[in-house]
Specification:
The structure is a single chain. The protein has about 375 residues and is an alpha/beta fold. The protein has 11 helices and 17 strands. Helices cover about 25% and strands about 25% of the residues. The chain binds nicotinamide-adenine-dinucleotide and zinc ion (ZN) (2 copies). This is Enoyl reductase (ER) domain-containing protein.
Length: about 375
Amino acid sequence: MSSSTEHPRVITCKAAVAWGAGEALVMEEVEVSPPHPMEIRIKVVCTSLCRSDVTAWQSQAHASIFPRIFGHEASGIVESVGQGVSEFEQGDHVLTLFTGECMSCRHCTSGKSNICQVLGLERRGVMHSDQGTRFSVKGRPIYHYCAVSSFSEYTVVHSGCAVKVSSVAPLEKICLLSCGVAAGLGAAWKVADIAGGSTVVIFGLGTVGLAVAQGAKLRGASRIVGVDTNPEKSEKAKVFGITDFINPHDYDEPIQQVVKRITDGGADYSFECIGDTRMITAALQSSCDGWGLAVTLGVPKVEPEVSAHYALFLTGRTLKGSLLGGWKPKSDLPLLVDMYLREEIQIDEFITHNLSFEEINKAFDLMKEGKCLRCVLHMPK
Ligand SMILES: NC(=O)c1ccc[n+]([C@@H]2O[C@H](COP(=O)([O-])OP(=O)(O)OC[C@H]3O[C@@H](n4cnc5c(N)ncnc54)[C@H](O)[C@@H]3O)[C@@H](O)[C@H]2O)c1
Ligand SMILES: [Zn+2]
Ligand SMILES: [Zn+2]
C-alpha cells in the first residue's frame, strides 16, 4: 500500500502493538499518519530485535507509555516525505536511527559527541517535534519507542532519525547496523580506540558484546576474554575472536578476580554489554591500574546507580559510557554499510534466526530464553 509522495494519506497497515508491560504483542490494523514537516514515512523491510526493546517492554517503570509499538533496529524504503525534506526521496534505502543527528546543535557540531540535543534518545514515547504520535488504532493514539517504532509495516520518523545507505546493500542484513553491531564496533574503535596487542575483557556475549569482540580482533588485540553465564555462548564467541571464554558459574571467586589473575593484574580495556550495573563495577575492577578503561554499553533493567570504590579511579582507571558506539549516525553508518559490502566486517554471523513479522512473539521468547543473537523479522513483501 502506498500513496503519492506529494499528497501522502493515512496508511492502514499491520503493526505489533504492546498493550501492556510484558504482555504478548498483538497484530493490529493501525493507522499511520502522513509524515509531518521534516519527517519521512518508511516502508519497513526488516527489523531485528535488540535487548533494549525487551528491557523497555518488560519495564513497569514505563507502564504509562502503553499501548506502544517497539522496534528500533531496522531497514526500509522511503515511502513518502513531509514538507521541507530535501535529503530523502521516495525509494531511498534507509536505516532508522534511535538517536538522531540534527547536524546543527552544540553536540552535533562539536565533533566530540553523538548525543544530539534535538533528536537524541526519545524516552516519552512520542515524536521529538510535537510530542505527538503518528500511530492510532480505531482513533486511540499508540505510543512510539525511541521515535522509531519499527514493529510496523510503515512508520514515521524525523528525517534526522534515518540515514540513506547504499541501495545495493541487503536490507535483511544491514538492519543490524541500525543498533547492535554498530554499537559494539564503535565502542571498540571510536570510544575505547583499542590498540593492537592489548588485552580486552567483555562482559556479556550477545550481539553487542560479540560486535565489541569483532572490533577488538580487527584492531589486533592479542587476548579477548569473554564472560557470559550462558555456556551456549562459548562456541559462537570464537567466530568473533573471543580467545578465552569464562562462565562465572564455574568459579567460587568473584569474576573480576579471575580476570585479574589471567590478565596479569587486569585488562587494558573492559566492556559491560549486559545491562547490569553490578557488572559495570565488575568491569571496572577487571581493568588494570594506571590506564584501564571500562566502557559501559548496557541498559540496566533495575538498580540504575553504579557503585565503585574511589580507589579504582585514584589508581588511574576511567569509566566511559557509549551510545551507538559514539558513531555520528548520518556520516558514519553509511561507511559501516560500505565496509560490510567490502567484506571488512561480519554481520551475517550475528543472525541466528529469520522469522516472518507475524512470528514476532517467538522472537521475544528466543531472546528471553537466551537462544538467539539477532532474530531478523521480515515484513510481508
Ligand atoms: N549502548 C548502546 O548503544 C546499546 C545498543 C544496543 C544494546 N544495548 C544494550 O546492551 C546490552 C546487550 O545487548 P544485546 O542485544 O547484546 O543483549 P543480549 O541479551 O543478546 O546479550 C546479553 C548477554 O549477557 C549475558 N549475561 C546476562 N547476565 C550476565 C551476567 N550476570 N554475567 C555474564 N553474562 C551475563 C547473557 O547470557 C547474554 O549472552 C543490553 O543491555 C542492551 O539494552 C546498548
Ligand atoms: Zn538496540
Ligand atoms: Zn543535534
